[in-house]
Queue: 2 jobs
Job 1
Amino acid sequence: MKKPAPLDVDAILDDRGTRIIVCCGAGGVGKTTTAAALGLRAAERGRCAVVLTVDPARRLAQSMGLSELDNTPRLVHTAVEGDGQLFAMMLDMKRTFDEIIEAHADPERARQILSNPFYQSLSSSFSGTQEYMAMEKLGQLRRSDEWDLIIVDTPPSRSALDFLDAPERLGRFLDGRFIKLLTAPAKAGGRSAFRLLNAGFGLVAGAMTKLLGAQVLKDLQTFVSALDAVFGGFRQRAETTYRLLQAPGTAFVVVAAPERDAMREASYFVERLAEERMPLAGLVVNRVHLSPAAGLSAARSAAAAEDLESKGEHELTAAVLRLHTGRMQLAAREHREQEHFVSAHPTVPVVQVRAMSEDVHDLAGLHRIGELLASGA
């Protein structure tokens, strides 16, 4: 395998022009741990960093020694030297949605919207809400200018890049025929137009009332009538954040494990980011298995173990040789999977992080991961 260019993590963290790092990748590849380790190392190197996770798993809080994470950045109490600081938070999509309503509607209208059953359903479970709110929260953090580095830990699998589609999807929703029909009477410019639109809407409303019931239709109309005032600004902000993600101050880091499915997902992310003209920093390959006795091949190790077993000698040594054989075979499989990626994406910088003997569950473990990210496996 032609050796790819190394991913220089410290150069990215030390570059004060880098303001946003987005970690994306399949589920179960150590993406959350990578994001947290990058945040800790950045703080150790003098940055004021905040890690935003939108992954529903709560490993980040545990590894940082916090009892919980919520929608407000919390200071991680560490022995960080110098001026660096580390904050962490977990996206609460409903709370973020509520904050948008409260900030962009007068108190009475905000109260009506927040208590509306359609809003409650939309803010909690509507498809794409999490991605909308991730885009909004990232924009809020960036506009506040309280942190000089924001690290985003995205949801697992391909949905990690769905927030790139948030502005367009939101626009399609707001511009849909059904929404326009419900808001048309309130937007009529004159009385004749109002009567005409109201008459047309009345026919539809009559049919919908029979189908849904009068109260349900009223709730729906009340909710929809507030959409333009509240969401128009959000759509604009989401588009602004999208352009921010394309700017030179952003770095996307794709995280993968050296396994077939995870490396295929990594290829998908790299290709999608290129299509969207997003700045890709490189690939982190987590949990790479290496051996301190790499000079002893799997074939020679297996042969030596077989020889000892046939003679009935040195059973413990034979068992160790068998373990080494399995380790080398696993390393060879992982190497082949990485070869496939590199052959398809030869210009993408790569850093390997070797597999740890135990799960990362504290700041010391995150510090060690940060060192491995900086130096390679």
Job 2
Amino acid sequence: MQPHLFHFTALATVIAIQMTAAAPDSELVKQTDQAWDVTWGRFYLPKAQTFGDYLSSYEKGKEQAHLPTAEEVKRQYPNPCGYSTGMEDGAILGGAMLSVLCDRFAVTGDEGLREKAASVFAGLKLCATVHGVRGFVARNVCPEDAKSVYINSSRDQVTHFVHGVWQYYRSPLADEATKKEIRVVLADVAERMIAFVTPENDFDFCRADGTRCPLGICRMWNVQAHEAARLPMIYAAAWDVTRDERYRKEWRRYAADAIVQSATPGENKPAYALLQMQCSLEVLHELEPEAALKATIHERMVHVRDLAAKRFTSVLAQIAKKSPEQMRMTGPDWRKVPEWKNQKGYPNPQWGPFREIWHITREAGESALILLMVDPGSFSEAQQTALAELMQRFDYAHNSSCGVVYHLAAYWKARRNHLLNP
């Protein structure tokens, strides 16, 4: 990769999006193959069958040496969410990767993807069962012992978990034995929501130890607009795979009100929040039996897409301002980050300048993916060019952000919709 490729102005990026034709398709294919290899070779944790959040080294065998030990996780160190440790978003990433695999299989029919999908599902199932707490979705599982988990999850983890597993169930990749397992897993998640998400609990699904989440990130109702569709989505997915009237009743109880509440997500929400909203709406739109409500859900999805379009342009401009050296930055060993140990409440190591690199890498893929989740024919030539150029210029061999998963997600979603065809 030439040093000058990332070092151009935001204005030049906008001009490139509007005027520059995509480089040869073979180069894009080569880049996506490299992104795929990096994802499975560096971010995937074979013992837990999950994915880590970032790399602290490019040295083989030491890429995720910063991950917490089993002893650290058992004492909930440095915090009960595992924030900033590399074990924060395993359920999110596993759910997103199942979606990638479903899309890639729809395009290629590659039978080798069955094994990969089975392994990702096994990791997600481990997140939902290894702790013995029915229906609780842990963020990740410690790869040292493949057992230890942090006790504080979040609605974000559950959203991607349910969305990805639901897509897997409906794809040709899942055999009947796997579908049976999925029915149990999604029913268990729904049962936890029925039991815990009540007015008396302030609609909190609680931590693995049964106590309320002090951060508000496990609340499933009376939440912000971009979060309102999460609860009925979980019930709808559980009903779809089980056809149990118990879950249909809960889905219908919340669905219409949730869509009313979903009308005005914040203009400045990060891409991950918009993506999770779109995932929830996607499930509800697919399953909604009432024509009028289905049309309103579609309107909400189009609005989210329009917000994401602005985010996509903005994050490309941010990336354009970074030097190649900045984009190749690795994350820290969180134990060596100064000062955080004196924080009160949830001590949370801070990553310094790496946080921005990790974030914008992820946002680029997330925002592009959102654009392709509703009316993909509206993904313009300029946006296709922008996505292709992003991936063609990206140095995936020196990328330390799990955002690479979303680059792959956007690419294969585009390919599934007959865009970016080589």
